[in-house]
């Protein structure tokens, strides 16, 4: 029993996370699952306070199988889950937990905006040299605002990059997980 809007938000959320992160999360995977003791132990070692279970299960990298089932309507009571904001919160948590690309996009946007302001400055200068009448002060205002907006975005993006790297280090996720050792003595 999911609405078309809920399915659309879910589809877009999975697409964004899979496009922007290094972890591939299977579409339509929920948090209701059966896991082996080994997977549970690895998940517990991660010890994340804002864990995104669907992403963490994909991150630990063990083989997954899927069982399709029809989800029945709630039998009794009423849930607290808000279909719109709940899905957005889950998606945002997943994106933040597994990707720093939004921070990189902010840096790129700032760099592009600052560069475009230089191009716009050249255009205004060319118009001035050709004698095209410009509204007094407009070109200066537009250039100053666009240039410093770009510089601010670039600065925020760079600060975000540093914070993102600190965040990755604080999570202390292992670089690899050893499933089993063959021909090694303990």
Please give a handful of descriptors for the protein shown:
186 residues; 61% helix; mainly alpha; elongated
Low-confidence stretches: none
- The run of helices and strands is HHHHHH
The number of distinct β-strands equals 0
| Residue share in helix | 55-70%
Question: Shape, please?
Answer: elongated
Alpha carbon gyration radius: 24 Å
Could you report the average pLDDT, rounded to the nearest whole number? Answer: 84
Largest sheet: none
Number of domains: 2
- DSSP summary: helix tally: 6
In whole angstroms, the N-to-C terminal distance is 51 Å
Label the structural class. mainly alpha
How big a fraction of the residues is strand? Answer: under 5%
Descriptive account of the structure:
This protein is mainly alpha-helical and 186 residues long. The protein has two domains: 4-98, no CATH class; 101-171. 61% of the residues lie in helices and 0% in strands. The protein has six helices and no strands. The protein has helices spanning 4-20, 37-46, 53-60, 83-98, 101-129, 138-171. Helix 1 (4-20) packs parallel to helix 4. It is elongated, with a radius of gyration of 24 Å. It starts with a helix and ends in a 15-residue tail after the last helix. The relative contact order is 0.12.
């Amino acid at each position: 029993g999911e609405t078309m809007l809920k399915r659309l938000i879910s589809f877009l959320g999975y697409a964004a996370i899979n496009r922007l992160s290094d972890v591939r999360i299977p579409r339509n995977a929920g948090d209701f699952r059966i896991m082996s003791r080994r997977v549970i132990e690895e998940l517990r070692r991660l010890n994340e306070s804002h864990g995104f279970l669907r992403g963490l299960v994909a991150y630990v990298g063990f083989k997954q199988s899927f069982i399709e089932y029809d989800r029945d309507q709630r039998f009794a009571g009423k849930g607290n889950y808000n279909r719109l904001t709940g899905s957005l919160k889950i998606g945002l948590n997943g994106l933040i937990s597994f990707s720093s690309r939004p921070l990189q996009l902010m840096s790129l946007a700032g760099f592009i905006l600052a560069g475009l302001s230089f191009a716009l400055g050249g255009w205004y200068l060319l118009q001035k040299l050709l004698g095209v009448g410009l509204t007094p002060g407009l070109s200066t205002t537009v250039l100053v605002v666009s240039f410093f907006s770009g510089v601010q975005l670039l600065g925020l993006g760079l600060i975000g990059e540093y914070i993102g790297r600190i965040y990755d280090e604080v999570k202390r996720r292992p670089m690899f997980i050893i499933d089993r050792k063959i021909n090694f003595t303990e």
